[in-house]
Design a protein that fits this description.
There is one protein chain. The protein is an all-alpha fold. The chain has two domains: 51 residues; 146 residues, no CATH class. The chain is built from nine helices and no strands. The N and C termini lie far apart (47 Å).
Length: 206
């Protein structure tokens, strides 16, 4: 390897160590890694912040702000009371959260939309996180299994051709129609959620 490749691997390794150490905020560690790459000449000064203008970065940032707003305004508590009964146990709650995330993930690219009747471009999982944490607090248990349920459900983007870019790519070559996806996607989503619930409870007991 040449000198630049060694520098790249060194910066990457140092960044991973900082992430695992968890002494500083992850965004500050990432900014430090970018700065190191600029100072080392791996990235030019003029192109250092090009990635921040990518639509995905902007969308994720906006949705995270929205999720915090939902939490601070009290909307999260209202949604929790209407979506998941207070008498529901951990297993039913995990299944409900995974199912909701799986349903949402099928409608907008990569972990989809509506976000419990609120139109969001993408990353419904980010919007559901405060709802999930609030649900765990109401039950008085760890939020870890509920967050894993949302993550699993959000990855089940099988219901429509717009749920994931891979679904869209195979639509034309395969001669599929919009309505063809749910025929296989719905059973696959149900199977994934059904398999995930006991596994989540096994590995992340509430």
């Amino acid at each position: 390897m040449n000198a630049q490749q060694w520098i790249v691997f060194s910066v990457l390794l140092a960044t991973l160590v900082m992430f695992i150490w968890n002494r500083w905020r992850h965004d500050m560690v990432a900014a430090g890694a970018l700065l190191a790459c600029v100072l080392a000449g791996l990235v030019s000064y003029s192109n250092a912040f090009d990635g921040f203008s990518h639509p995905a970065v902007i969308t994720v940032a906006c949705v995270l702000v929205l999720s915090k707003g939902l939490q601070n305004s009290g909307v999260v508590d209202v949604l929790v009371r209407h979506v998941i009964p207070a008498s529901a146990g951990p297993m039913l709650t995990i299944a409900a959260l995974a199912g909701i995330a799986a349903a949402l993930s099928g409608f907008i690219n990569n972990v989809g939309a509506l976000a419990l009747l609120m139109p969001v471009a993408m990353q419904a999982a980010a919007v559901m996180c405060p709802i999930t944490i609030s649900t765990a607090r109401q039950l008085g248990v760890s939020a870890d299994p509920f967050l894993m349920a949302v993550a699993v459900g959000a990855s089940c983007a099988f219901l429509t051709p717009i749920g994931h870019q891979s679904n869209t790519l195979v639509m034309a070559p395969g001669g599929y129609r919009f309505g063809d996806y749910w025929r296989m996607g719905l059973p696959l989503s149900i199977l994934a959620v059904a398999a995930a619930v006991p596994l989540i409870l096994w590995f992340w007991p509430p």
